[in-house]
Amino acid sequence: MSLLTAAKTKMPNMGYAPDFVQAALAPYINDIHRKGIRVVSNAGGVNPLACAAAIQEVVQKAGLDLKVAVVTGDDLIARKDSLSDLRMADGGNMKSLPKTVHSMNAYLGAVPIQRCLDLGADIVVTGRCVDSAVALGPLMHTFGWEKSDYDLLAAGSLAGHLIECGAQSTGGIFTDWHKVPDWDNMGFPVVECSSDGSFVLSKPPQTGGLVAFGTVAEQLVYEIGDPRRYLLPDVTCDFSQVTITEVPGVEGGAVRVTGAKGHAPSGDYKVCATYMEGFRATAVCPVGGVRATEKARRTAESIIKRTRRIFKQLGVEDFSSVNIQVLGAEDTYGPQAVNKGSREVVLWMAVRHRQKKALELFAREIAPAGTGMAPGLTGIVGGRPRVSPVLKAFFFMHPKSQLKVDLHVGGEHAESLSEVDSTEEEVPPTSAQEDTPASGNVTRLCSDWPGGVSAAALCT
Q: Does pTM surpass 0.70?
């Protein structure tokens, strides 16, 4: 979001993910219209209205009639001067907002997306929201799930969670990677959801990848913390009793998922703020030949020592941090390293400093190593290191009652949503649903588009 904020600063009509519009939507807009597919995405970044305008332009050029909706209200940067004594997301301690805050966005939930679909939107664009909401919103709309149907909301959130990272649930970065075929044609996951919350996860036929118990189970526990208490804006999820059952006879594999439970959510939104904390520069240099590891390490130490001497001469403070690794010498294994004598390694240096000019001095001192230090340093990957700002995340909680979410449909403001000012206590889960036969009403959701933007395509 911070990078998108920088993009919007340079160009006011940017600040969203343009690849979503030009690569994911534009080439397929006629098929989307013809097949009645409804698309939901958080590609709006910090400028969802501009993203919607770009999509509307694509629609108009194609001569189509599609209703585009936008969810706004997640961006809190205009309130930064009024926010103080913030409760941290990792345990409740109170802290002040960093002075150099660059962006600040609340993780919204699924209800605004549901309402946009209720209002007839064909394409829904949001700013910051939890990734699973782009799946849960369409399910709430299609099946009429209520805000208090916590087991169902947990099941829908699980469906969204399992597909939110794309090919991670179809064999990407799988522990048993050697069992996954055709990486060059990886299939993205598809979930077919029933109104009772159960769903089947598979992938398109004749695509690479693998859907199996292991690929899906690894994604289930990815980035959720306590599986008994996964906190989302719409529901507190308990995934501890989830069952994943492989479905036989499906090309590429498929699994049936049941057993998610839910409780009432908290009265707060999680907010992600980013702030600047100095600058960084990275130098990467291949080093070859006998005793390559020793040469690389001595080269790095000499460059740092030389730069520090220049800092001292100029009255500049020391680096904030210095990190040196020799890739190929098993530095990442620490004391468990075995092979330290490779004849070909890559020197990786990452440094930080409060001042940009200090790292520009460091960047200038890399090239002299090519002629003034060890033999075998064969180049600088990417040329002279570039200095870039260090952006850090700052997570805190913000009362839902103090945030208004606006919905825009077809270029007009449609309605506003806000939470009542109350603190909800957790309640027992709703009655079990998995023993109820699935109805014939099934909704099909495909996963996010490549490139880090979460999206769901809805086919009923």
A: yes
